[in-house]
Amino acid sequence: MRLLCIFVPMIDNIKAHLKDVAAFSANTADEVAQFRIDYLGKKGHITKLFADFRNVPNEQKKEYGQLLNQLKSEAQEKVKKLQAALGGTQSSKSAIDDVTRPGQPIPLGARHPISIVRDRVIDVFSRIGYGLSSGPEVEDDWHNFTALNLPEHHPARDMQDTFFVQTDPDVMLRTHTSSVQVRHMESNQPPIRILSPGRVFRNEAISARSHCVFHQVEGLYINKDVSFADLKQTLMYFTKAIFGTAEIRLRPSYFPFTEPSAEVDIYWGLETEADYRITKGTGWLEIMGCGMVDPNVLTNCGIDADTYSGFAFGMGLERMAMLLYQIEDIRMFYENDVRFLKQFSSSI
Ligand code: DAH
């Protein structure tokens, strides 16, 4: 009977803990953590009560064991409930703790092929000192035409089917990035070495070969004693870097803003059937227009044409991307079909 008296308080002790556990509430995750340590930790109440189990007389072991198991599961339940109520700390913590858990795949996008080619062109020219210059897409007649030696009624204006804005003949979407040359020269004096990538617009029927919105890069170099040989050397450096060949030919051509003017062809080769198709059996491909800046243009932009000379060139980025990636239809660039775009996840 005396022995029994000793162990009754132990059972009461568990019952008191059960009451405490039931009544416990917490406002912070720290309080829950402390509660868990107090009850379920290595040196917590429950561990101690389990250690005492062997001192309990046989006839009490059953009740003691049951109550202790009840206390343990109620304490565990309490911790879970409080953690969930305080923002699921337990579940997110255990997810992070499991370092063997397989990672979630992160879907990566790809850069657009036009951006890739544009950045390559910028990179190649920046190595020889070219900076960037930009202008507006909505232009006025002066910057898009007149200053570039294309006065009103000049027949070459018809070559560039222009989108006018609100039927005002003085406001238009720029038909080429040559307009940026004018803006740059108007507010800067030589030496000038700039590249102007940008979007241009022409009122053309959309087909596999042409689009009404496309991209160009304009280049301009103005200094003392700039010659056509400097232009040719610059172009060879460029085609070597982008197309891997410096074998180019300059075909005499006409642009109102350059004199003399030329079209630049690179030797593409005739190795495959596709080479025959895209070079029309000649092995040569036209990639851009260029020339020595017409002195009239320099004068129009406030640069002394007796002291300075320079060259300009302009190329279409879609055309370059089509050649570099063997893309046969220009419309692919604007459809945003992910199956097309994701092929460019590694740049050229
Ligand atoms: N602006 C011309 C076009 O859109 C391209 C061009 C040709 C630009 C010759 C130039 C150049 O700077 O010298 O077709």
Instruction: Give me the strand/helix succession.
Output: HHHHHHEEHEEHEEHEEHEHEHHH
DSSP strand tally:
10
Largest sheet: 7 strands, mixed
Average residue-wise pLDDT: 90
List each distinct ligand once.
3,4-dihydroxyphenylalanine
The CATH class of the largest domain turns out to be Alpha Beta
CATH level-four homologous superfamily name of the largest domain: Bira Bifunctional Protein, Domain 2
* Subunit organisation of the chains: single chain
Q: Judging from the principal axes of the Cα atoms, what is the shape?
A: elongated
Estimate what percentage of residues fall within beta strands: 15-25%
Structural class: alpha+beta
Examine the coordinates and then state which fold CATH places here, giving the name of the CATH topology of the largest domain: BirA Bifunctional Protein, domain 2
Helix percent reads 40-55%
Q: What integer value in Å does the Rg equal?
A: 39 Å
CATH architecture of the largest domain: 2-Layer Sandwich
Low-confidence stretches: 1-5
